[in-house]
Structures are given as C-alpha cells and as structure tokens.
Write a structure and sequence with these properties.
CATH architecture of the largest domain: 3-Layer(aba) Sandwich
Number of strands: 11
Bound molecules: D-mannonic acid
Strand content: 5-15%
Helix content: 40-55%
Shape: globular
Distance between the termini: 53 Å
CATH class of the largest domain: Alpha Beta
Radius of gyration: 23 Å
Structural class: alpha/beta
CATH superfamily of the largest domain: NAD(P)-binding Rossmann-like Domain
C-alpha cells in the first residue's frame, strides 16, 4: 500500500521523494486534481522539490464537485502520493512516486475549509484545471453564463460558494479583509488566453456580486496565460495491475503519461512563484502564439483523429495512427488548414512540431482512448476546430478537412454508433441538446449547425454550409467515413 509508512520499502523498487515532505507548506492550492494536473504541474513541482529547497510550494488539492470524493479519499489514504508511470514509445516504462501534493480538501459540503485554505497566509497561487467547460462561458460568444443555477445561488449567498467563481471571490475577499496580499490565479486549461479568460469571467461575476471587490481583483490579482502540454490518458485497471504485478505496489489511482512535457507561461505573479525555470518551464512575455499553436494543432489534431476514429471504430489514438489514411488526413488538416492561420514563432519550426505531434500520437503504449478525446467535444471543438474554420473562411482558406469532422460529429451525436453499428458511449454535458439537433439532420441538413452557442454565425457562411451539407448527407447515406476521407 502506497503511503508514508511504507515509503522506505517502496523506495527499494521505485524512486520515491527524497525531499522532506513534512517540511512542505501549502503554497499552491490546486482546483481540479485530475490525471493531467498530477502528470504536469504536480510533477514539475516535485522535480523542483527534488532539486532544491522549495518547501513553501507544497500543493493542496481541491475538489469542488461530489465526483471528487474518490480522488480525495484515495490521496488522503496515500498521504497525497501517487505513482506516475511514464510510457515511452519504445516500450520502456519509468515509474516514480510523486510527493508534491500534501493535502486535499473538498468544497462541496464544507466550503469554509476551502475558502480558509485559499485565504491562508502561506497560499500564494490558486491554480486551475477545471476543464474548458468549467469556465462557464458561452463557447460561441465567450460571454459569462449567468443562467447557471449555481452561479445564481452564489451571487445571492457569497458565503456558500458552489463554483470556482464563488470560491475565488470569497477567498480573495477574506484575504483583503485580513490585509494579506492577493494570490495569483493560474489557469492550466486548454483555452486560448486561459489567464485572460479566467480574469474576464471572474471580473464579470465579481462585478455582479460586489463592485468594490471586482475593482480590487482587477488591480491586485495576476492571471498569467499559459500553454500546458502532456498527453495523459485515463488510468486503466491494467495500469493499477501493472504496478502491483511488477513491484507489489498497491496504488489505487496512479497516473500514466507520455514522456513529452511542456509548460510555457507568462511571468506575471501577484505574490511570488516557484522557480519552475530550474526544471524546464519556459517563462515568456507573451504566451498567446504558443497557446494557439498547441490548441490548433495538437488538440485539434486529437479531435480530428478522435471523431473520425470513433465513427470508423478505432478504439485509440495510436490505432488511428497505424492507419495510413488517418495519418495522411491529419497531416493534410494540419498543413493546409491549421498552419496557414498560425503566427510564426521565433525559434519554433512548425514542420518539426507537427512531425513530433505525429510521433507522440503514434506512441503505441499510451493507448489514449478515442472516447477521452471525444468527451466534452461541445466545450472543446469551438476553440480547437471551429475557430480554425472561421479563420479560414475569413481568409479564403481550405475548410474541407475540418468540416468533415463537424459533419462526423453530427452523425456521432445523433446515432451514437460507429460504422459497424457498435454503440459509442458519448460523454458530453450538452449531449441531449447535441442529439436533438443532430437528429433533425435528415429533414434539415443544417440542423446541427443552427446551434448558435457552438457554431456562432457559421450557418450564414455559404461556403461552409454548402460543403457541410454535402458531407453530412453523404455520411448519413454511408457512414464508412474512410470513403469520404479518401475523396477529400
Ligand atoms: C486532448 C487533451 O482533451 C483533449 O481532447 O487533446 O487532453 C490533450 O491530450 C492535452 O491537452 C495534451 O497536453
């Protein structure tokens, strides 16, 4: 069993933290402790703690939803520790125990505990991986969604927060009253201008709740933009069994990931930061071009493979990459549609970047499921893919490769089956709405595109609707997606 008492024994088999975990204080409070946080920020923090005394930068995990109970309970039992299993393309596997998370608190039944942690004098950063959907904006307009019942509740009851916005405002207010410096809000989500978006949304909320506090936030709280990257598939039972069979190690929720890791972030912190540059993090004045490159190539590339792969019946991203047609299609999308609208980045060779993406996607040991990639597409595609279609419409660029993905997404949302009739489990907060819109396609080929909150005004773009309606009707007539991919 992985916990502090057994660490000496475990260290005979697997690297374990060599720094003094007991001396760590919580300097970063992290909301959304999924696999990605544990493979990325918590890993970088662990590396720094291994390298030198960084004892003021321990992490306290926070879960705001009932679903976070499981990870909370497991990490509490394991004294915050977990195994990171890094899987190389050549089959090598490196496992190590990560020790940077030292506490975990749940907000949904005891909000005060979380507010107090965020307002603690030692807390300097509140970081977020709350997913694209967690920011509570309309994907097409980018506007804050005041209709959300939890938001309504916390506007009326500032001491009983439910969403990230209620918690942040309550904690910032408490710090202000106590004369403590404001923390930095550090978004680590896959959203272009993630810091700016976090700031805009928080300010919009705060202005409704407490104008004076909003003015304080605007002045005192920093929101660095960042680009984060590491492919982190969903942990499987096989990963848990692997540790037990290979090392006799019982870890109830390890994390697996690829060897590649990247974090580019703006050096804009209200109250200090870890010296992450010592462990390979890049601090830059403006992260936006990096974010755009990653979202429009990596994340969009994933969605291209994921949606088309789901309909074809490929279970994983690496299975897609074993299929030559998918590789050619992915590259054509990246070269002809995504690249022309990217800014040139000094020191970055886009061809090499795309080559490296292909290698990463093809890693046969990662087995990143197509279902993970397709999950929450309604929150992802507007930013990853639809934005590229819009840019190309404005620049007379090619749109056919991305448009086929949208048409395939419609079929997927309507039928929930692959081309062989096997059912696909769809995970999406907007699933019912997507299904309803898609199911009208046969009488109204553009029905899916009429969802303005996802597609904005694409419905009025004649070039797009022409290509889309042709492709969507062809998929409904014959869902053998490869026939269409070959023709484009
Ligand atoms: C993926 C990302 O969610 C997705 O669709 O594209 O989770 C991706 O694996 C990460 O952003 C990689 O850094």
């Amino acid at each position: 069993m992985l916990n502090s008492n057994n660490l000496a024994e475990i260290s005979k088999q697997i690297p374990t933290p060599t720094f003094d975990r007991k001396s760590l204080k919580v300097g970063m409070v992290h909301v959304g402790v999924g696999g990605f946080h544990r493979a990325h920020q918590a890993f970088y923090t662990h590396l720094l703690q291994e390298k030198e005394n960084a004892s003021e930068w321990g992490i306290c995990g926070i879960g705001l939803r009932e679903g976070d109970q499981k990870i909370h309970d497991i990490l509490q039992k394991q004294n915050g520790m977990y195994t990171l299993i890094i899987k190389h393309p050549d089959g090598r596997i490196d496992s190590q125990i990560i020790g940077s998370i030292i506490d975990f608190k749940l907000g949904y039944d005891t909000p005060d505990v979380v507010i107090d942690q965020m307002a603690h004098p030692d807390t300097k950063i509140v970081s977020l991986t709350i997913t694209e959907g967690g920011y509570n904006f309309n994907p097409a307009t980018g506007e804050f969604d005041f209709e959300n019942a939890d938001i309504q509740h916390e506007l009326q009851h500032p001491n009983d927060p439910k969403t990230i916005y209620g918690f942040l405002t309550a904690a910032i207010k408490k710090r202000k009253v106590q004369g403590l410096p404001a923390f930095t809000v550090m978004s680590c989500d896959n959203i272009q201008h993630n810091g700016d978006v976090a700031k805009e949304m928080l300010l919009t909320f705060a202005k409704k709740q407490n104008e004076e506090l909003a003015a304080y936030i605007e002045k005192e709280v920093s929101f660095p933009n960042s680009m984060v990257d590491r492919i982190t598939p969903v942990t499987t039972q096989a990963d848990i069994n692997y540790l037990e069979n290979t090392y006799g190690l019982k870890d109830e929720w390890p994390v697996t990931c690829e060897p590649f890791i990247q974090w580019v972030i703006e050096d804009n912190f209200s109250n200090g930061r870890p010296e992450f540059e010592k462990v390979g993090v890049q601090f830059v004045p403006d992260v936006k071009p990096y974010e755009k490159m990653k979202l429009r190539l990596l994340n969009a590339g994933h969605s291209v493979l994921g949606i088309l792969g789901a309909i074809h019946g490929h279970p994983t991203i690496n299975a897609c990459m074993e299929d030559d047609l998918f590789v050619t299609y992915l590259r054509a999308f990246m070269d002809e549609e995504a690249t022309p609208i990217l800014d040139q980045l000094e020191g970055i060779d886009l061809t090499a970047y795309k080559d490296s993406l292909q290698e990463r996607f093809a890693n046969p040991n990662i087995k990143d499921s197509v279902s993970r990639i397709c999950s929450e597409s309604s929150a992802k595609l507007p930013k990853f893919l639809i934005a590229t279609i819009q840019d190309n419409l404005a620049n007379a660029g090619s749109i056919k490769f991305a448009t086929l993905v949208i048409a395939a997404w419609c079929y997927y949302s309507d039928k929930g089956i692959d081309k062989n009739g096997n059912s696909i489990a769809i995970i999406d907060a907007m699933q019912d709405q997507l299904h309803q819109a898609a199911s009208k396609t046969q009488s109204d080929p553009l029905a899916f595109i009429r969802q303005e909150s996802l597609f904005g005004n694409l419905i009025n773009e004649e070039r797009f609707t022409r290509i889309y309606s042709d492709l969507v009707q062809k998929i409904y007539a014959d869902p053998d997606i490869k026939k269409l991919m070959i023709q484009l």
